[in-house]
Amino acid sequence: MSTDQAPKGRPSLRERRRAVAAQEIVGAAESHIVEQGPHALSLRAVARDLGMTVQALYHYFPSRDDLVTALITKAYDDLADAVRTATGAAADEPDLPGMIVAAEGYRRWAIGHPERFQLLYGAPLRHYHAPVDGPTTQANRRMSEVFARELFRGFTPAQLAAADVRSLSPEFMARLKDLSPASGDPSGEGTLPPPATALMLSVWGYMHGMVALEVFGHTGFLGAHQAELYRMAMRNLLEDTRRRIPPAVE
Questions:
Q1: pLDDT digit string (tens) for 60-107?
Q2: Judgement on whether residues 194 and 116 belong to the same structural domain of the protein
Q3: Are residues 45 and 70 in the same domain?
């Protein structure tokens, strides 16, 4: 059997080498973003750092968009892992709701990786178009699932479907049916009811907005108290959100 062949179901030597090379390229591109910012990403500079030609790099990533997609997907995955790790260690603070723990995990990753956070949520890279329902979308959904689970833990689908979102139009509620994060339903049935999706999007926007203000330096005047303000805001947000969900019917 050729050294490039492998038993069925196992990657061949060539495929494994290709995967390692692709990881090295992504790692070099991440380093470039950390040093120069996402808008300065240059395939030529990445190739030079690795001692390869741009033409050789294109064998692994046929276009700049392909490399950017890999970088964004990895950033979302790393952010989701950080949030999962935070919720997994929640036993250290048993009185802190899981949603607050998840939100603080999100914040810590963002302020620890500001350039990669900017890649995800800063000004869009010029001429970049993420593939429709591609790996970046799937990675973002995986992170959303964690927040949906922690935000609505303990509530039934019937309670979530009856959440108070009376100000929303029927047209918007219909649109929300297509946006419900897969597996976000704490019942495990697969999707959230539209009212719960509306609440989650509102929570995420508030949470993300506070983190973005901090990452981009707009709340630096608070110094170390930024974490304290954030925790207070997240507690208030969680309490307000859960007040909109009716109690379970006995």
A1: 999 999 999 999 999 999 999 999 999 887 666 678 899 999 999 999
A2: yes
A3: no
